[in-house]
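Supplementary material to the annual report.
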Amino acid sequence: MIVVGGGLGGLGAAFSLSRQGLAVRLLESAPAFGEVGAGIQLAPNCTRILDDYGLLDEARSLGVLPDAMVMRDAVDGAELTRLDLRHLEERYGYPYLVVHRSDLHGLLLRACGRAGVELVNDARVTSYENTGGGARVTLASGAAHEAGMVIAADGLHSAARGLFVDDRPVSSAYVAYRGTVPAEQPRVRNTDLGEVVVYVGPHCHFVHYGLRGGEMLNQVAVFESPKALAGQDDWGTPDELDAAFAGTCDAVREGLPFMWRGKWWRMFDRNPISRWVHGRIALLGDSAHPPLQYIAQGAVMAVEDGWVLGEHVGLHRAGDGTVDWTAALAAYEAVRAEHCRRVQTTSRAWGELWHLDGLAREQRNALLRARDTYDYSFTDWLYGPTALTPDQEPDMFTPVPLDSAAVGGAALAGGAA
Amino acid sequence: MIVVGGGLGGLGAAFSLSRQGLAVRLLESAPAFGEVGAGIQLAPNCTRILDDYGLLDEARSLGVLPDAMVMRDAVDGAELTRLDLRHLEERYGYPYLVVHRSDLHGLLLRACGRAGVELVNDARVTSYENTGGGARVTLASGAAHEAGMVIAADGLHSAARGLFVDDRPVSSAYVAYRGTVPAEQPRVRNTDLGEVVVYVGPHCHFVHYGLRGGEMLNQVAVFESPKALAGQDDWGTPDELDAAFAGTCDAVREGLPFMWRGKWWRMFDRNPISRWVHGRIALLGDSAHPPLQYIAQGAVMAVEDGWVLGEHVGLHRAGDGTVDWTAALAAYEAVRAEHCRRVQTTSRAWGELWHLDGLAREQRNALLRARDTYDYSFTDWLYGPTALTPDQEPDMFTPVPLDSAAVGGAALAGGAA
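Predicted assembly:
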């Protein structure tokens, strides 16, 4: 079979399907495999899968396990709420890990190599079509590849998505700057590198966390571009960055000089779609469900997609190795489309909440301060086991063992009769 | 197509599939349609579906909307925790309704009649087999019925389940007595009929709630049978009932004289199974996933099964009306098997929690007392929208509108970046 796209989603899917005994060819448009960007957060719903792949120890060695995620108000710097990431790891059974995107990409690429995935570069797929018993992709070069099944993990600007819907990426008018603060800077010494900190402010937010053994600080600064709102093309420029954060607290503003000012990432998502499978062509990752980044689930969803697909391929494979693709793909679509739709819409809603101003900001802050640190009602659906194959996952929703019930009110709740 | 079994699950499935334009024949073994039992609790994940079916108003008129579900200790009678069912309705968008099982059954039966379902009595199916393009069932009479698809909603003692697994019902050694207290009894006047009350005690529990406009009290008494534990066949007899509740508080013991002493229900479930689809034969309801009753989801799951199947039939139906059964059934199984497995294992775990004795009971009580009334972390996965077709359900996990945010800490939680 063929996987189109050598990003995190495509590599994860190729590895997962190889594990099921399938011969996989991966087509990547770029002349070499690689990944741009800086840090990436891997919630337990991703590290659970890395563990199943036998890759978690390596991922741990490349990343950092922060102690806490702390949300602060960007204007006055005050703490609003936090997640205890050590306790969260106990709850979900797997850690919350932060790594460089390039390190995760390299890890998956090496795993694909070991698994025998055929990795092909300089192969930009421009069109997809179903054949009788499979599907065919055509490259920009004019060459074609055919297989019994094609996974289109071709990203936000997917060429395959046009088979399903005539849509375009949706601009949020927000733009992200990234940067790292080197170890020798006083800012690094003065920061708790065990915390992932999110400063939420009016029309902006700022994130930092430690990377690579904790000796550097990864930073992300995100804001709404007035030029984007005004319909101008050259939006998100560094002058807008400075203006957007002018009203924030010292702890935020002192991080701005470390942002890379030569490159910025305009933030787009797409509206959810419910069908990802067309004959023997299926979308996966950002081609199916590109989200805004507010709950850090874009790459995680792509990794989940590949794992779920692999599991259902395993369930719908006959003794002779033949896969019932109709069944496996229908199961994949049924399990994943609704979940990813919720991630997309929830991400948008969190963005709105983070960026409130005025009285609404005050109300939000009061609500967040009232939240119990150990209330997991907003993470269970996301970080808990992915709905897929039975008999594999712990049931976190059953009562905790009574001798570990030190956590308080969140541990138990009333049932029915 | 054919649905085998005229219980709540079979009727629900027949109605759902009729709505999708399919011609449905329903085969029921009994000479007339009916339902035994007393009250049944319909959580929002069921009333949501009744609403989608256009049947919720009728169900409301037949049932009661209690104000609260209260858990109390059966020994000392003290309150342990509660659900505010009015607020719960706001959270999930649909009410928590209690009705007579027979009223719900009648409602679904009438809906099937109006939808044109062919209802056949005296048709006891004894065997199932796949044919080339569909499936065939054979009756005890020797007659056979064939269709493109057969749904086996044939209950705890399903004949179809043997196609999937060689298992038997698992005895919990618990037995239930039911009864109703008539309106003229002082007990009814002295009870808050707006509450569903669960008294949890050592090796026993007791439930009561108002039914039919609140003018009668429905009661359920459940206990572990010493004779069952000793391996005796005649277990669960009324003498065991009296002994089991001897140590409970007055409020419980005063209800015992109203239990029907001539009939009792031994409580069985089965171990979860992951495959429910075999060619063109699919399990549904108790044939697939009979649970213990502790979280009141047995009939609710069966109704959900039918709805989910109908939705996926709709998604995998071609323009000419042909259903891609391979895809629809794979999607149904992928969505439902994992959810129902969790309900089954969670039900068992709740039963253990309810029936604790000694120090473990004290620890449980302390935990339950510490729970916030508005902590929904243990009901969201159950009462929230069923994972199935996209773009239909509200996203309860997104932040609440700030002007309705009076609920406190449970309303919001930290995200990621």
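Chain B touches chain A through 87 residues (CB under 8 Å).
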